[in-house]
Design a protein that fits this description.
By secondary structure, the chain is an all-alpha fold. The chain contains one helix and no strands.
Length: 40
């Protein structure tokens, strides 16, 4: 295990984590928008 490999793995994991967070956030925003539109 070299430092480069470790850095790459951490960068990749970070990217996946960010992607998952963004996906969840977008889903929640869409759901909230739908409910808000129904109320309004």
């Amino acid at each position: 295990m070299t430092g480069e490999t470790l850095t790459f793995m951490f960068a990749w994991m970070g990217r996946v984590f960010l992607a998952c967070l963004t996906g969840l956030f977008v889903k929640n925003v869409k759901k909230c928008t739908k409910e808000f539109v129904q109320i309004a």
